[in-house]
Amino acid sequence: MTGSRKFFVGGNFKCNGNKSSLQTLIESIIKSTLPASEIVDIVVSPPSIYLEYVNQLVGQRVQVAAQNCYSETKGAYTGEISAEMIVDIGLKWVILGHSERRNLFKESNQLIAKKTQHALSQGLSVIFCIGELLEQRETNKTEQVLDEQLGFLLNGVVSDWSKVVIAYEPVWAIGTGKTASPQQAQDAHAFIRKWLSEKVSKEVANATRILYGGSVTATNSAELSKQLDVDGFLVGGASLVASDFVTIINTANPKSYL
Q1: Of the residues 52, 98, 148, 198, which is catalytic?
Q2: Helix, coil or strand: residue 130
Q3: pTM of the prediction?
Q4: Which partner for 129 in 26, 84, 97, 162 could form a disulfide, CB atoms 3.0-4.6 Å apart?
Q5: What is the pLDDT of residues 49-79, one digit of tens each?
Q6: What is the pLDDT, as a whole number, of residue 176?
């Protein structure tokens, strides 16, 4: 079976922006020259309070993702939003397992798996984030950590792998200005694809898009995008600067497979 993986560039705005700045940002992005929709998916992820507002601004070319959602439909979960609510306002994507959720907010692998299973059951597509801490990389535990985090997607958690995009985000490179070298990124992505081939299927491994996240910039994205198993980016700070984000989008480099 042959095919190609459409590139994917996500912009995670985190806890940044207001109505005025988001309007300016989105209008600048959508007015720019962008690759064709067959080449790259573009997804932006504003704070939850602005999801519906941004969705009204993006038009047809850009999609909108929530940054998080809970594992239950409704209830006494102050401050949370549900997958059903995300669907209700017309969105198709959610980011789950981001390192800031894992490390700042102490979300466990079990909770993230439960969230993922529920989001998929409601028809959402999931950007599933994994990655190691600096001390784990320095003690050569990167693959062990990735194996453990990915392992929670097995045993029926993922019902449809075509609705999962995996984002490899080395925690030591998020917001630090440090970026994994193109070879470090490729090595981790190759491990993830091998894991998918062995634990799920070769077909899923070939088709699943694996993104790199971790201080992606307009300067380093072109070299990173050339790597065989890098299928896109989950961009943090640079996604808040329209010109930088557009430059990153335009490095789209879809990969073919046999």
Answers
A1: 98
A2: strand
A3: 0.97
A4: 97
A5: 999 999 999 999 999 999 999 999 999 999 9
A6: 85
CA dihedral (70, 120, 165, 246) in degrees, to 10, reads -70
CA distance readout (Å), 234 to 42, 65, 79, 128, 155: 10, 12, 25, 11, 27
N-term to C-term CA, the chain: 6
Q: Helices (H), strands (E): how many in the chain?
A: 11, 10
**Residue 132 bears catalytic tag:** no
- Give the residue among 107, 94, 110, 5 at the shortest CA–CA distance from 51: 94
Q: Residues near 194 by Cβ (< 8 Å), separated by ≥ 6?
A: 205
User: Among residues 27, 169, 189, 198, which one is catalytic?
Assistant: 169
Phi-psi map region of 147: left, alpha, beta (phi>0 left; psi -120 to 50 alpha): alpha
Distance CA 90, CA 233 (A): 23
CA 5 to chain centre: 15
Q: Give the type of residue at 36.
A: A
Instruction: Give the ranges where the chain is alpha helix by DSSP (H).
Output: 19-30, 51-57, 83-88, 99-103, 109-121, 134-138, 142-151, 182-199, 202-207, 221-225, 242-249
Measured in residues, the chain has a length of 258
Q: Report all structural domains of the chain as residue ranges with CATH numbers, in order of start.
A: 3-257 (3.20.20.70)
User: What would the DSSP string read from start to end of 176-233?
Assistant: SS----HHHHHHHHHHHHHHHHHHT-HHHHHH--EEE-SS--TTTHHHHHTSTT--EE
